[in-house]
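Researcher: Please generate the 3D structure of the following complex. Treat every line as part of one assembly.
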Amino acid sequence: MFEKDALALMMNLMIFAPLAGVPLILLLGKTSAKYIAFVVSLIPFVLSLLLYAGYLDFSTLDATTADGYVIDSGYRWFGSQNADGTWVSSFDINYLTGIDGISVFLVLLTTFIFPISILFSWGSVHDREAAYYNLLLILEVGVLGVFLALDLILFYVFFEMVLIPMYFLIGIWGGKDRIYASLKFFLYTLIGSLLMLVCILYLGYYAGTLVNDGYFTSDLLKISSIEIPAEVQWWLFIGFALSFAIKVPLFPLHTWLPDAHVQAPTAGSVILAAVLLKMGTYGLVRFCLPLFPDASLEFAPIMCLLGTIGIIYGAMASMVQTDIKKLVAYSSVSHLGFIVLGIFSFTEEAMSGAIVQMVNHGISTGALFLIIGMIYDRRHTREIKDFQGIAKVLPIFTVVFMITTFSSIGLPGLNGFVGEFLILLGSFSSDHVSPVYAVLGTTGVIIAAVYMLWMFRRVMFGTLDKDENRSLTDLNARELGLMLPLIALMFYIGFHATPVLKEIGKSSDRVVEKVISRTGSNFSQK
Amino acid sequence: MEALLPLIILSPFIGAAIIGIWGLFSSSFRHQEKLIGTIATLAVVLPFVLVLNTFLSYEHGKPVSFHLFSWMATKNFSVDFSYVLDEASLLMGLIVTGIGSLIHIYSIAYMHHDKGFYRYFLYLNLFIFSMNNLILGDNLLVLFLGWEGVGACSYFLIGYWFEDMAKAMAAQKAFVANRIGDFALLVAMFIIFTSTGSLKFSEISLSGDVAFWVALLVFIAATGKSAQIPLYVWLPDAMAGPTPVSALIHAATMVTSGIYLIARMSEVFLQVPGVMILVAVIGGLTAILAALIAIAQNDIKKVLAYSTVSQLGFMFMALGAGAFSTAIFHVMTHAFFKACLFLGSGSVIHAMEHMHLVDDPQDIRTMGKLGKYMPSTSKTFWISTLAIAGIFPLSGFFSKDEILGKLFAAGHEHVMYYAVWAVGMITAVLTAFYMTRVTFLTFNGKKRFPEEGHPHESSPLMTIPLWILAGLAIVGGFLGLPAVVGHGHYNWISEHWLSISKAPIIVNRILHADLTTEWILIGISFCVAIGGVYFAYSLYSKYDLQADLKVKSFFGSMYRVMENKFFIDEFYNAAIIRPFVWLGNYAIMPFDKKFIDGLVNGSGYLVYSAGSVFRQLQSGLVQKYALLMFIGVVVLLGYAIFG
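Model: Done. Output below.
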């Protein structure tokens, strides 16, 4: 359908397309800000769909680059080409982007969740709208950049760029403890990313001596081609993994998350859960595993252990929350624990499961935060005890909430099950980590049913005993309209995950192979 | 016809989708009960016709399979929505879609004027969809989709009247108890995949330790779904759902899926005799415990619920003995008479409710002499009672006798089976006793509701399914006449239908008893059933409700324990649920808030103090920009140094 160059251009246009809204909003003023933002956010969405269609053409032909990227593009500024075609530069920091099976669905999720978040905000944000929507659009650029950057410094810039709008979104439009929460969020992630920066600098310098005539390089493809000694990998892994673990968040670095979620405005929570946390798990898959395979193998037991603790710890913390939003926030700690377990099990099943679960968690937990936002906009409370029996007055809301709840607790036939099952199945069958993690992780499935259904029952069922709840109105067309696509996706992935898994597998299998090739004995299916 | 087979799966799903979506958005559709009932019923009758057609033209050993689409696929693992109609799944399919159809019809009358009418049929269709996946799936994962799907439908239907918090609690309890079992099934699947690389039934062959763990875990899973010790506690509470649901889900179909799963995996179980003994012992204990509790209950549905738990125990005894197809035989006969009993109780409850004279329409102490007003319900209920009690020649006699016979024969393998056999015999007496009690106190004896009450027989839409089921409860047993009568292979279900195929779906342990022993055992079964019924009948016809006092004095202090269901719920609450919540509240949250956040806030304070130096220069948000500029400088310095 498209030439590769056209797709590459489209990809880069998509990243920056949201910025088109910023001058428009500034010029046309705040009353139309929400409409502009929504329409503008549809541009990257449409572009991402076209990109995906083109992507499928090339991934079927298996016309991937040697490094596994289906589409990649580069804008290099300084330096010169060697005789063998490699690029050498004394200032080898470039704008390099590319897409493969690991990032493609995260990109689609991002371009999909932003219009939904913006559309949701129409009904709940009435304060400083121009700034609010501008920040959301800038945020989208940062997130897309993170998932597509193939240059470490570029990645770092996008990674940090995400931090600032999110900080303001929580700090200005958040709840009553927003200042504490936003500062905590900011410091936590900043400390992590500074560590990563140090590691990037070291890595770039180290790699440069091997592949760039001794000059610093941050070109991911170049760096991927070198072998790093195990002891160097060890330190670099710690730096990168710590930064990503904070983002994930992995136990015990998770305490910023419940505060940030509870204080953030709904759209902020949705985006935070759906895509910002995935930056951490994506980073682990994109950088930690392929660049530091030996260290990844060595740290796998610790990462799996922390992931497993996160599954159970997050679930048990969810169980005792009285605030619905905090409950869902802790459930994210549990769900992301599954993903980390999947990444560090080093089987194709667990890895594909982990990546599909990144998307699934974005859909399900994103939907849960939207649902909580809808109920909060009506009642201005999120305390479980302030509700009871509201299913009676909100039939459509109840159905939407119920399906999302079951998606979150991994009912087969809905999306959450596919990811969790593949992660646990793959982890159990792994030759590289103990099956005990998978078995312990599976108990999370039981506790998930406890905390979600417990909350659901107390909020939705029983007699409608509070007067304030009697006059609640059911979902309007806009609210229903933004939930339906999410629910359709829950069923689609739940029943027919094969097309998604196929594309993911093409790239994620390479990562797994790269890691396990270091064990000396090739992984073989028993 | 074969091209239509996918409709067995799709038709109830489409029915559910139409009713659900249309009903949610159109209030006029919601009131068209006839239209909703017709759509839902047709969506189940169609699969029944298709299954029946396949059954009638079925050639032994030649399973019919069909395929929908791929579910998930990764490098080493893939699973499809593909299904197989073989001896075992066809038999179950007939039970599920057949009884399912009858209960859909019955429900149209039973749920008349209920404001959630469309929701009810949506769930019922969704249940049939899940159940069909469970029994027809050719691999464990599709079975698991159905397994959890029926759990979810059970959740929706138990909590159907969600405005009653107690009912919503019962629904939640059912789902969570089932999830504990599901956990075991998940781990079993992981083990099977790791050792065979597949989850297809036809490719599962295990031995040694792997077989042991898989068998044990599958058994634990079955104790959840099929309500055995220690996970049975959800089933009695599940009676909070509408009564036709109790008949379909919590008696005839869903609760037997654990037995079906074990039978399908019989080859694995036969490798581990130790687990087989455990299965039989747990089955025996559950059977007698539930029977004892049933004696002391006064809620008609609770009695039937505990009776179901007890009968499921019989099926597990059969499984444990290695008589897998005998267990399936009892699944079938039990489906007939227990569905009939539950629908009968629904008819009674309906009548009691419509009198508007009693507080609790399910309490047998306020019933009595209903047979005079409700002849069809009374007759069919009595037929089914005699069937479950094991009176010759009704269906329950054949299946129960065969179970006890197989247990006795298994005594050759291990002496423990004799003990289980003895427990089974005692339970058979208790069954005859408590079933006669509940039936007598409901339909016979003194009229215990107010004099002005005139209960009415239910409409034909309800009584016709009752008669069909009662008819099946009478003749169902002849499908499996004991081997002894025909000198060998005469039991059509367990000896012929389920066993004679080239690649047996269900493999039974070979159990032989000599002819004399078998006749003696049949004699004992015959007498035990008649004795139990006669004793209860004479006791209750003489003393009516006062006879309970005699029973009470017979059991002594034990009676209070039975009345309170052996305090199992209280035990679980104190031993598991509370400690868990306590751990969350007093260990995890303080750790989160005090310890981790303490460290974070401490280091945050340090940064804050350092930041106050800069603050003298800047104010407000600009301070954060400064921090960012600082990062920028670090980056540039990096280039300068390294570049």
